[in-house]
Amino acid sequence: MTTRCFSCDGRVIWTTTKNGNKMPVNQDPVPNGNIRLDGNMAVVMTQEEMASYAGTRYISHHAVCPKAKDWRGKHR
Question: In angstroms, what CA-CA distances link 45 with 9, 10, 29, 39, 57?
Fold first, then answer.
């Protein structure tokens, strides 16, 4: 599901991790991202996986949101 960040109004895709946690990922792909999407699941790639992965890459919104520290440890 695509929404907007509550803090910076950036566009995010709400995904889940393999552990079932919610994770906001920036909607726009980036060439050096360390996250690939498998359906609605965010998969954080290792350095080795990143070296050989040729698909679309994303980055966690927490990594770039100017207000991320305000949300650390809070869950909605």
Answer: 26, 23, 15, 15, 10
